[in-house]
Each structure stands twice: as structure tokens, then as C-alpha cells.
């Protein structure tokens, strides 16, 4: 029995997410079809002009907007940003630097710092275990 390998396909929304673009801003033929893994790889390795333009100027999906502003997606929502933004709008927000954006950036910096602290603590525990030591703060 031989198996026929079928091309793996995905919905346009999934492909847009993987490409980091706002689906509603993509061409109609992209939105209405399906995208194979091969097509996705081709779009990533040699993006057409429409994809380069979207990545450059937007509108950008919320995860990209959040990353460009240095905050979380939840922070965007708390700041009242629920729609896709263009690069120009993102730059304007950065220049205005409203209080909510400053607060969200501070929060995000604290979250990152805590993530690093937890990672280092975990690595230290793994090192101690590999060396046969008792974990710190425990008695034998």
C-alpha cells in the first residue's frame, strides 16, 4: 500500500498570523484561498511587494503593534487600542508617549526582568542537582 502525500494547507488567517500581517489588509486572492506550506515558505523567503509593503507600513496586527511599542497585547487593550495600527500611527503613539504607554512599558520591563530571574533560578537548581548538591534552603 502506498500513501499519497498531500500538501499541508492552512487557512488564510493562520498564514497571515505566521507572516505577521493583518489579514484584512492582504489581497483578496490571499484572503479567499488556502495557503500550502510550500507557498508559505515561498512568501517568507521571497516576499512579494504587497507583503513587504504591509510589513513596512501596516496596518499591523495587534501582536506586532504590541511588540513595536514594547508592551503586551493586554497592555494594548488596557490602553484602549483594539484595532490594527499603521507604522505611522505607532510612531505617533511613541512620540506622544501617553501615561498609559509609559506604565505598560514599565510593567513589561518588570515582567521580562522577573522571567530572567526565574530562568536563572531554575538553571541554578538544575546545576545543583547535576552536581549532587542539596537544593538551597532545605535540610538533609
Tell me roughly what share of residues is in helical segments.
55-70%
User: Segments where pLDDT lies below 50 for 5+ residues?
Assistant: none
Strand order of the biggest β-sheet = 1-2
Distance between the termini: 61 Å
Order of helices and strands: EHHEHHHHHH
User: Tally of extended strands?
Assistant: 2
**Class from helix and strand fractions:** mainly alpha
Proportion of beta-strand residues: under 5%
Radius of gyration: 22 Å
Q: Looking at the structure, what is the overall shape?
A: flat
Q: Outline the biggest β-sheet.
A: 2 strands, antiparallel
The total of helices stands at: 8
Q: Mean pLDDT, rounded to whole units?
A: 88
Question: Can you tell me about this structure?
Answer:
The chain contains eight helices and two strands. With 140 residues, the protein is an all-alpha fold. Strands 1-2 form a two-stranded antiparallel sheet. The longest helix is centred in the last third of the chain and has 32 residues, at 99-130. It is flat and about 60 Å long. It starts with 8 loop residues before the first strand and ends in a 10-residue tail after the last helix.
Amino acid at each position: 500500500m502506498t500513501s499519497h502525500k498531500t500538501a499541508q494547507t492552512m487557512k488564510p488567517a493562520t498564514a497571515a498570523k505566521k507572516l505577521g500581517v493583518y489579514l484584512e489588509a492582504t489581497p483578496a486572492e490571499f484572503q479567499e484561498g488556502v495557503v500550502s506550506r510550500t507557498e508559505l515558505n515561498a512568501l517568507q523567503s521571497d516576499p512579494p511587494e504587497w507583503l513587504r509593503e504591509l510589513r513596512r507600513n501596516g496596518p499591523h496586527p495587534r501582536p506586532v503593534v504590541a511588540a513595536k511599542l514594547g508592551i503586551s497585547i493586554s497592555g494594548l487593550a488596557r490602553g484602549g487600542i483594539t484595532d490594527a495600527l499603521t507604522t505611522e500611527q505607532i510612531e505617533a503613539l511613541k512620540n506622544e508617549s501617553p501615561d498609559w504607554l509609559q506604565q505598560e512599558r514599565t510593567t513589561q520591563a518588570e515582567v521580562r526582568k522577573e522571567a530572567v530571574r526565574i530562568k536563572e533560578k531554575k538553571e541554578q537548581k538544575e546545576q545543583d542537582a547535576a552536581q549532587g548538591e542539596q537544593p538551597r534552603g532545605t535540610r538533609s
